[in-house]
Amino acid sequence: xxxxxxxxxxxxxxxxxxxxxxxxxxxxxxxxxxxxxxxxxxxxxxxxxxxxxxxxxxxxxxxxxxxxxxxxxxxxxxxxxxxxxxxxxxxxxxxxxxxxxxxxxxxxxxxxxxxxxxxxxxxxxxxxxxxxxxxxxxxxxxxxxxxxxxxxxxxxxxxxxxxxxxxxxxxxxxxxxxxxxxxxxxxxxxxxxxxxxxxxxxxxxxxxxxxxxxxxxxxxxxxxxxxxxxxxxxxxxxxxxxxxxxxxxxxxxxxxxxxxxxxxxxxxxxxxxxxxxxxxxxxxxxxxxxxxxxxxxxxxxxxxxxxxxxxxxxx
Length: 315
Ligand SMILES: NC(=O)c1ccc[n+]([C@@H]2O[C@H](COP(=O)([O-])OP(=O)(O)OC[C@H]3O[C@@H](n4cnc5c(N)ncnc54)[C@H](OP(=O)(O)O)[C@@H]3O)[C@@H](O)[C@H]2O)c1
What we know:
- There is one protein chain.
- The chain has an 8-stranded mixed sheet with strand order 8-9-10-7-11-12-13-14. Strands 3-2-1-4-5-6 form a 6-stranded parallel sheet, sandwiched between helices.
- It has 2 domains: 4-119, NAD(P)-binding Rossmann-like Domain (Rossmann fold, 3-Layer(aba) Sandwich), CATH 3.40.50; 122-273, Dihydrodipicolinate Reductase, domain 2 (2-Layer Sandwich), CATH 3.30.360.10.
- The protein is built from 9 helices and 14 strands.
- Helices cover 34% and strands 30% of the residues.
- It is globular and about 55 Å long.
- The protein starts with a strand and ends with a helix.
- The mean pLDDT is 97.
- The protein is of the alpha/beta class.
- Residues 10-14, 36-37, 41, 69-72, 92-93, 159-160, 173 line the site of NADP nicotinamide-adenine-dinucleotide phosphate.
């Protein structure tokens, strides 16, 4: 079957450093069009066509699917524009800024009969897939505790990440990753309660650090997101039958390098992989109707609900 023809909205850091190259390398995908405010930046990604208007990509009849890597507050309006034009959508994390927006986005996609997927690239990494498989198959017993951290000292100061109105802040930017893994590891329908939040603010009101304590029927956990702490990404998940842990401090951003996972009493090795490329290959395959895994919309909605609960306690 023919390649899925992707149209990119935005040619910022991620599109330039990672995702355009991922589409060029992916099987079953082609970079048909890119739009950026500066069309030279769009053209530099080497699409078949470059535009200076996001709308032109959405309306391009030769584009099958839209990839959105705009600032976070622009995700919802462009998801709605793309699905109403009949395009499938892969949208960067955080998908949108609240659970209500997430439900609105999936309802619109369902009504249009198109696929909508949150581009949480680390969820396509085989090491993270393995953790989720171990937890959901019950190999670790009941999940009793979780620690997921993603912290680093943010050096940019004039970026949308420092604007509350643009959906900035550490929770939206990096807290999403450990939350996605935790929710994927818990049984469907398992309620997750946010019991305590510590929040340090800066910039234009955004959270520089958010620490959240959560509980579920069989356990408790902590998630830490920060732009203001030393670089560290930890993941430790305990079940009644054993522990999995990532000990290389790159739990969510392992990229094009081999990685390791400690599973109970042994180490599993994973070859180098570009999880962005895997993401585009699998979303493209799903668009073609193949039965492959993509991040489920239900998990994206649950993550947005937990983010809402954390933000309510940190207000
Ligand atoms: N950086 C990462 O490692 C990473 C990883 C995974 C996911 N993401 C997600 O990808 C998205 C973009 O991240 P990024 O790192 O690529 O950000 P970035 O370099 O700051 O790019 C922001 C994008 O927003 C667009 N934009 C449109 N109007 C804007 C305005 N008035 N002010 C600022 N930006 C405007 C820009 O579009 P133009 O190109 O048209 O100028 C640009 O493509 C975010 O949702 C982020 O959560 C980032």
